[in-house]
Every structure is written in C-alpha cells, then in structure tokens.
Specification:
heterodimer, A: 259 residues, Nucleotidyltransferase, domain 5, 5-stranded mixed sheet, B: alpha/beta, 4-stranded parallel sheet
Amino acid sequence: MITAGLDLGTQSVKAVVLKDGEVVGRGKAFSGFDPAKAAEQALADALKEANLSMGDVEHVTATGSGMDMASNANSTVSMMGADAKAGVHIFPNTRTIIDVGAEEARAVKCDDNGIMMDFVVNERCAAGAGAFIEAMARALEVKLEDMGPLSLKAERASSINASCVIFGESDVVSLIHKQESKPEIARAIFEAMADRVSSMVHRLGVNPDVVLVGGVAKDVGFVTALKKKLGVDVLIPDTPDYSGALGAALVAVKRVKKV
Amino acid sequence: MKSQSEEKKYMPELPEKEVEELRKNITATSQRVVAENIEKMKKTDPHRPEGMKYFDEIANFSMREKEIREAKQKGKKVIGYTCLFAPIELILAADAIPVRVNSGWYDASKLGDRIVPVEVCPVVRSTIGAKMIALSPYLELSDALISVLTCDGMTKLGEILSDYKPVWAMSIPRVKDSAQSTRLWIEEIKAVKGQIEALTGNKIKSKQLKSAIERTQKATKAFRRLQELRKGPPVIMGRDAMLVNQTYMWDDIDRWTEKTEALCDELEKRASKKDWACPPDTPRVLVTGTPMIWPDNWKVPTLVEEANPQGVLVADELCSGERLLYDPVGVDEWSMSDMLNAIAERYLMASTCPCFTSKDGNEDRINWLLNKIKEWNIQGVIYYVVRGCMLYAMEYTRVKKVLDRMSIPVYYLDTEYTREDVGQMKTRVEAFLEMLSARIDI
C-alpha cells in the first residue's frame, strides 16, 4: 500500500511517501505565497525519490496550519494527532511529543496506540519557537545554523526574557551594549526558549519517553538547553522536520484500511 | 470653569464627528456579524427550529431597543447591570426594565485601549469603548447602573461608567459561606432596593415583589425545560440554545418565557421524530470560563459546531449562559423579609463565579461542573479565557486537576476580543475534537 503525508507548515511544506509502512521518499518546498503549489512540489519530489507517480498513491493526508489549502489531499489530521502518530511509530515507548516549529511550539501526551490524550500549544507569541532563534541570530549577526554550536562554547549564560520576540530582541541589544560575549548571549536565548517550552510541557506532565520533533529539533543549542531544563533524556528522530508529514502518511494508512 | 463634580474622572471628551463616524462603522459591522452568525447557525442545522425566528429577531438589537425607548417615553425606568448578581426581581417589582450592558463588540475594545491598558480584560475594555461612542443601545437607555464588585475589572468598570450615569456599587463578599457574608449581602440588597425605589418613585411592596419573583421563577422553569431536553441526543445546536439564553439579558421577561416554552414544545416533537440537530454520536462539549457575549464574541461556539470533526455544545458554565437562569429564587413564606432573604441567597449562594473562595476554595464551581458532566454526558470541556481574565485563568489549574482525575479531556483556549486569531483557534479546537472522536471510536 502506498500513502503520502503532507505537512503544510508556516515556513515550508514537507512530504513523505510510505510504502507498506516504510518511508520511501521525502520532499520539501518553501510555503511562500502559494502553499497549495508548494504542497504539489514537495509531493512530486518525494514521489520522484521513491520512483513512484501520483497514480500509485492510494490516500494523501494533510496536516499543518495550511492543511485546508492542500488541493491534492484526500483528508486532513490535526498537527497534534500527526505528532502523536509519528512519535509512537518511531519510538514505541513515546508518551510525550514536543514539536517546535517555526512559529509554534506544542506538546502532546499520548497512549500506547499513539492516540492523543491531551495537548498544549504555546501562547500566541512565537517566542518559544524557531522564529525567535532567527530574530535573535539577526540581532547577533550570526548565521542561523551557527547559533547552536556557538551557544555550546559559553561557560555561563546571560539572562533574557523570552516572553515576547520583540522584547527579547531589545534584551539582546542591551546585552550587546553591556559587551557580553556572543556565545553567552546565544546560550541565554536557547535557555529562555527552553524555559518557555518546558513550562508548557510541565502543564501536561513530563512522561517519558519524551520525543522532540519539528525543525528546531535540529538545533543542538536548543536541544542541549531543553534536556537540561526538563531533566530527562529527549529522543530525536533522524529527520525531525519530516515528523508531521510522516504522522499524516501513517494516518492515511489507517484511513485506507477503514474504507 | 467646570466644577469638580462636572469633571469626568476617566473618560475623555471625543470630537462629536469622530464619535459619529466610529459609531456608524462599528454598528454596520455589528449588523453584518449578527446576520452572519444567524446564517451560520441556520446552515449548521438545516431543520433549525421555527421557534428560533423570534430569538433571531431579539438578537438584532433594534426591535427591543425601540420597545424600551417607547416604554421610557411612557415613564418607565431602565436599570442596567454589569454582573448577574444584580437582583432583577427588585427591578421588575418597581416596574423598571432590567438590561445587562456588558459589551460583546470586538472593535469597541480597541477604543477602550485609549482609557485603560491592553492588559485589562477585553469585556471591560469593550464596554468602556462602547460607552465612548454610545454604541450599546441598552447601556445608553439605562437610567442607572448596578455595578457588583466581583472581579477587579468589573469593580473599576462601574467607577469609569459613573462618569456618565448614576452607578450603584454593590459590595459582594468573596467568602460566601459565612454568617457575616450573608448579613453584608442582605444589607447590600436592601440598599439597592432603596436606590431602585428612589429612581422609579415606586415603593416596592410585598405584592409586587411576589409577582416579580414568580415571573423569574417561570423563566427559570422554561429554561430548565430547555436544558433537560439537551440531556439527550442533540435536539438543538448549542449556539441556538445559547442565543435563547443570552436574549434573556435584554428581552421582556414574560414574552421570553412564553417563547422559550413554545420552542421547547417544538423541540419535544422534534425529539419524538428523532430528527436530531446533528448526528447523535457528535462529541458533546461543555464550555466554561469568561462570559461570551453576543454578537461578536460568538467565535468559540461557532468554531466547535462548524469544526471538522464537528462538536456540539450541550451545556455551559458561563455567567452569560446557564448561570443567568438556572437557579430559581426559593421562597418559604411570602413576607417581605423572607423574600429579600431568598433573593439574597439565590444570587450569592448559587453563583459559581471564580471571584469567590472559601475554606474549600471555589468548591461549588467544581461540584457544579462535575454534576453537569455526569448529567449531560459531557465528553470534553473547553475552558475558555480571554487575556486579562485573571480569576478564570487561575482557577483552571484546579479544574484541570479534577477533570484529569476523572479522565475528562479539557482544553484551555485563550484568546482576545479579535477576529484575527480564528485560524489558530480552529487548529486547536479541531485537534481537541479529533481527540474526543478518537476516544469515542475506541
């Protein structure tokens, strides 16, 4: 059976193609102004990698904030539902899935079957999400991908307020004026973010195994800070940015079987 | 030079032209929103009861505004209130018209930002904004206002509105289950009775008070009948029931009772034909938290009932909802002092507002929620809070703990007086309903 999952995120669209439960292709495209087109592109790339064509796919399920715009999808599933499915599929003992994307951070609690039992989403500000790191990297004149490794060089962290992206940025500027070092400021940024995310997870309860997915899971600076704050090990899949799309593709399998 | 008493304490003088323009624009938006909401409600339930037509009409402000204006010309007084602790039996007994004046207009809250910071509860900011441009017909028509000092926002709202109208502040005890609290509250009830009599020139006698109590008891009876019908498979959508409930805040009480009874007759027939408002296995949701006020602040019930997967609201724990009407005044003997005591008790003891605490905290609210969940077979709870609504936000932690123990899913949905966050909210509401459906599926 061949199914596909699409994750229409705020910054990029991810696609995953599954053949009998195994990932055979992945694709990614920038969301831009035309998420529907990006979804087609991402799926076409994933199919190309899998040596398959659209006609082979039995069911496409979309997720992500733009899921209703995916014209090539047969059904949709919430991002939290997709997170839970993917988390348990990769790590069967998963009970808590944290997903940190570009604009949103969320945590999902699930049972043995990957069924969501509870979830929390960050407040409206993106201060606990990837966009925060981007804004701070700009303020520090550091490349986004260098932020994490840079933060690991610091022996201590400065302190900033991550309740708001804009205020956070002005905090960073005052630290620059105080001539604090870049690594220390970078570490402060990740610790402030991890603080926000971990208080959110605590509202749900920290039930191991804890899995971290979403694009920000690729940032070593954030991962280090989050592990420290939560006080438990955090598992990360090989391609955490494709986790939502994988979850959607798994839901598609279930929907084919149901019909 | 103006004397000190003529100086406004809070409110600025706005240029008449600006006021005119703002009122025109926001009124136009309001009319559009009223029509849209009703259209959406009709679409959700294609067999929407005929009896809803009456409530749609009352929901449109202008008909009732005209009636109240005419009554005023004949010498009737109108008494507005901001919290539901205002004893409307006393208002009715003095032959005056009670109206609730809290604002549900999103755009008006932006005007309120000129007077108080954005951190303040939007229900309060919006009511201030509505007053700035004379937007709310019921607030404008009020001759005096009863301001019950419940939360911080409501306390200062009364003070701000006193720039325009006589405001009678009623001090409500925060610990409700003590003898001294009861004494204080009865004194407050007696004091407000004196104010109402002075304004209307009508002395409230036992006979009139008895009749007023009987009228609210009838309304409560009709409302309870509607709520009973909602215990079974959905015979009415939650938004329709909520609209019936809300119109009580400004409608003529006797006509409201009559129309609600008629609606219930129709719903009973509908139930006997098993013509449900939505599929009987639709997840049953209860909503609790900050008051939701018609017409703009209708987004949560709309999101729930238009979601994919769909949910249906079958009960609420809102002061703009069931709390208005669910409890009757219980009188043993129809003497003046007994009736006043019964009124005092009904408003104080029956309320589950989070402004209260006692040795067990706000235990009454917890028990009320648990009872609703059991009796109305609730599968999930949406805990709705607007930013700045401190008391509801804080009590969530306790409610969540209790519901978690009972394995009742609850979702904390925080928002603002704005339309722009509907997309984000939809994602959350749909994930929650998907979770409920998955549980039902097992």
